[in-house]
Amino acid sequence: MSRSDFPPGYDDSRLLSNPQPGGGYPASAPPYGFGAYGGQPPYPQPNDPYRGQPPQPNDPYRGQPPQPNDPYRGQPAGYPPPSLPVIPVIPSGLGDDEGFTTTDGFESTSVRHSFIRKVYLILSAQLLVTAAVVAVFTFVEPVGVYVRKNPAIYWVSYAIYFVTHIVLVCCKGPRRRFPWNLILLAIFTLALSFMTGNIASYYSTKAVFLALGITVVVCVAVTVFCFQTKVDFTKCAGFFTILGIVVFVTGIITVIVLSFKYVPWLHMLYAAIGAIAFTLFLAYHTQLLIGNRKLSISPEEYVFAALSLYVDIVQIFLFLLQIIGFAER
């Protein structure tokens, strides 16, 4: 290949655009493509860690002639190379914008165990707080009497519960951003604990303990079943959506009817539907937590996972409390 086949170097291009007096090329112009820098003049440039260094034996580029399609070789010294686009690498199995994934969201057993352990630690703290508040409302009679005489306190706690619940479920930013996610979860837990204690104050101590015991048995049985069974509840996401709508509509109808006239069988029917529905919800959310199913919760959504399990357990307790309290009458 002749010398004219290669693009001009730095000195030649400078002379072509701004010829020097006397014309021609300087006698000291370096040979093209055969120097220690692959077509670059062997002059050290500032902030260049490679200039001024001898060719390395294992460097496949040093000492090679410039290639026609190589955007770096044959450029003037110090010419900045074109910036390459940064392509983000998303690990397989991580959750999407909604916090769910259709594949196994855990790349290793250690990641799965760490996620499950974190969720159940948060859930244990929530249940301990709720149990303590219910115990205060149940065993300290003046507290129960006071909240029953002042229902406005209950509705304030319900408003706080509703707002924090909506924020944690619908807003991904606050739900994933530490420490705001834990702060919102703590406020939500206190509000729901106060509501649960307020409702428990209307029932006898025996009914509260009996409902608590049945709730513990149901939750342990459902959790063990979900860890052992091959049945995939996450495939039935549409069914659980419809079930949630049914429970919500039934609850609205029951509240409207009971506000005008108390119908015992309607109250019992709603309590039975709610207890069964939230037991199924507990199984569904537990399998989302475990992973290795059609759908699973992203490891980043530990607050959402703990929130879902906590609401399911508290709702099971409240519905069982209504059934037992009605049976005692």
Automatic annotation (TrEMBL):
Membrane topology designation: Multi-pass membrane protein
Pro residues: compositionally biased ranges: 41-69
GO biological process: negative regulation of apoptotic signaling pathway
CDD domains, alphabetized: LFG_like
A GO CC annotation given for this chain: endoplasmic reticulum
Keywords for this protein: Membrane, Transmembrane, Transmembrane helix
Cellular localization per UniProt: Membrane
Classification via InterPro entries: Bax_inhibitor_1-related (IPR006214)
Pfam family, one: Bax1-I
Ranges where the record places region Disordered: 1-78
Spans traversing the lipid bilayer: 119-140, 152-170, 182-201, 207-227, 239-263, 269-290, 302-327
Annotated PANTHER family: BAX INHIBITOR-RELATED (PTHR23291), PROTEIN LIFEGUARD 3 (PTHR23291:SF35)
Sequence similarity: Belongs to the BI1 family.
Official protein name in the record: Transmembrane BAX inhibitor motif containing 1
Lineage of the species this protein comes from: Eukaryota, Metazoa, Chordata, Craniata, Vertebrata
